[in-house]
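Please describe the entry underneath.
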Amino acid sequence: MTSKRNIVIAGGGRVGFQTAKLLANRDHDVSIIEPDPAVVDAIADEWVATVIRGDATDPDILAQANLSEADAIAALTGDSGLNLAICMVAQELAPEVRTVTRIEDASGEAYLQFVDAVVFPEHAGARTAANEIIGSDVQTLADVTGSLDVMQIRVEEGAPAAGKTLSEVRFPAGTLVVSGDEGERIARPDTTLDPGKRYVVAVEPDVVDEVMNLLRG
């Protein structure tokens, strides 16, 4: 099964909140930091989770979110400069934490000098942000496929489909496994979904969660 991770999200707006819900649905522990009391109240009304009101650049606020025990922090506010500042403070306080920052310019690769990953939500929404926060086990090619998700997914040990051939797995309609392990050949009915190996999968949006459950657990 997918290992549960502790994740801190700075910014409870549309991108931050939707990302938090996706991660929580994947059984990760998520805390949201948001300075706007109205947004905090709205999140608390809609979703039972840890919501901290405050400035995510404040070390005391990050301590309330248990940053020292977090696996990742994602700064997803609408201010690129603030997001970078949050990640840099987080790295000073917890050097091992994975940092993901939201940017507002698609040419913002220079941010990768300071953070582990960047998200440009005009092209990539909450699902891609969630995948970046967790790491590189799932990579979405949303920029070139529109609403269709084309992902490279690493099969998790213990997942329902792990160790089975494609002919043995009942994928939902709207799913196409494109490549064999590590993309070396086109997938066939006798292709085995080996734990730890990566496969390219095309998925329609409404069945993504079901496919992720089969391959990741």
Q: What stands out?
A: The longest strand covers residues 29-34. The chain has two domains: 6-135, 144-216.
